[in-house]
Write the structure tokens for this entry.
Amino acid sequence: MRAEKTSDLQEELEKRFLTYALSTIVSRSLPDVRDGLKPIHRRILFAMESMGMSAASKHVKSAKIIGEVLGKYHPHGDSSTYESMVRMAQDFSMRYPLVDGKGNFGSMDGDSPAAYRYTEGRLTPITAFLLSDIKKDTVSFRPNYDNTLKEPVVLPSRMPNLLINGSSGIAVGMACSFPSHNLHEVISALISLIDQPKQTITSLMKHIKGPDFPTEGIILNSKAELRKAYETGSGAVKIRGEWKIEDLPRGKKQIIITSIPYAINKARMIERIAEIIISKKLASLTDVRDESDEKVRVVLEIKNTADPNKVMSYLFKHTDLDSNFQINFTCLKPNGEPARLSLIEICQEFLEFRKQVVTRRLQYELSLLEKRLHILAGFAAIFADLDKALKLIRSSKSKKEAHEKIRKYFALDDEQTIAILEFPLYRLVSLEMDKIITEQKEKLKEKKGIVSLLKSPKKIWKEVRNEFEEIDKKYGDKRKTKFGASESIEFNAEDFIEHEDVHVVLSQNGWIRKLKTISDPSSLKFKENDKLLGTTSCNTKDLLGLFTSFGIAYVVKVYNLPSTRSGFGEPIQGLFNFADGEKVIGMIRFPAIPKDNATGQSSLGFEDEAEYMVASANGYGFRFPISNLGETTRSGRKIMSLKDDDKMIAFAPVTQDHLFLATAEGKGLVIATEHITQLSGSGKGVILMKTKDSQLVGIKFVSLKDKITLSFDSGKDKEITVKSVRVCNRGTQGVILSKRKTIVKIT
């Protein structure tokens, strides 16, 4: 029997999760600082190179490429592999695409690419610099997943792919996010580092101005912000879309958005702009249209009186036209260790890698030269005594015997002897000997040059520099992304509110709607078991206050309420964070009040002298200045503190010098308004009326000459005069209004 092995569960879990985490980091999620590729991208490019799919070849079905990658190098899902190939072909994702795609490879609108059986691909010309010299022993190879083939550990990239194309990924416990940069700027920085290795980020940024995104746009960061991000390897790039004003006939104008921030879904951004137009939050903007082809062209129709700068300032604040790209320079170092590097460290690591690649290539070329010179030395030896060589061959009875005789007589090794025996007879002429001697001289000269290069680090760096200059000359281009100041036009949200009279309808079950007109409130339709709670006429610039049974006030701008042409409206719980069982007991309109008489500009506010009152079912209440209220968040603002068994049942403006109260059991009370305490903040208030085993059903401010209508549970009403109910001190039980009937409401 096999001996049992025991181990601590926690230790085993930690060890195995660490193994998984490291595997994810190294083998899947983080790019290598040398070629800027993750394993999946490296395998796709290597497989395409192995298939002979250069930029000069014909396009090949993507399905064939994916099959080659999965079958030989990447035993994972086909969908993720195809997605990786697609991204390398998208000119809006990669600053310098590595795959030349043919067919539908997706769009900036978030459209999915066609299935891989419909698309084709091949390598782009610039990708040749990623794979150049790969067959010259410039990089190490390792066994593939089934140990039948070899795959490169890293590609011998001549171009700084990590910086010029960027990368992003999420691993276990870490992530990376590299923006793309301009090839000419990065090459210029690398050359300057070769000339002057000891530099600072400041001096390096004379060459690398900042990220350069394929979707263009404007970078709003200051130089100090970018410098800090490059120094620490962490930060954020603020990107803003570009726009211009286009003149139309008859003095009209329209706004044209010509670029959007990197990695932003254009269709979703346009949908957001359309939502703003539909909700009339930006009244000066009337329509949005996408007229993009190869270039971005989003048309915004505006009113003649609109200020384009204010319109764009609003859109920058409320849409993805202004967004941030996070910088996180975490990648794999040459030893496989993940680390967050600075911009200088990334450049230095790549330069050191290029030096190693060039050195290995020269060593490989030197070994080939030495091998060829060795063979040529053998040819020279037999040509010195060609007749003897022919006699030895003719006198031999077998190839093996001839091999031994030639090898011993001319003191050659097996490799030289094999080359001689396989040499065609027609080349055994004096002219061919001249060619061999000439080739031998040329090879010796080449060998001398390579040996000289290998002995001089300065010459190797010059070789690296020459390669950079070749790439820059061929593919260096101008920046796409511009730099600009983060200045924005100051605006007030009220500037964009359209003056419009509307009606707000609220049902007892909490369904709210905003209508332009109401011909007859009784004609309004509601859901089953629901009915009208109240309506109010207001303007879109007004505020609407909603008071709930939990003693909370929710104040919202009317223009933020959902517009409804038909239907039952929207549940109020969708606008605010209501608790379970919380119900709206009523609403009031707070009109917009002019603030600046000089300009006539109005703002949302309250008159200081306005006063309201709230009351609870257990008979508590207080007055408060309405100026204390303002627009609230979704969580509202607490107005009244309630015990578990109590709830707020009424609120009303303080309009008269007396207050009438009534309980369900049929008692009423009239008290002087001045005896009701005023609170500046939330609280329980004072006892207005002792309710005992009953509950307060309503309050109403009255004068002693007024009349009150009592509504009973039987459906009948009774009218009484306020004078018939004597004025008492607050906190009493009041007088009996009805002995047998239950009061449900007072009006």
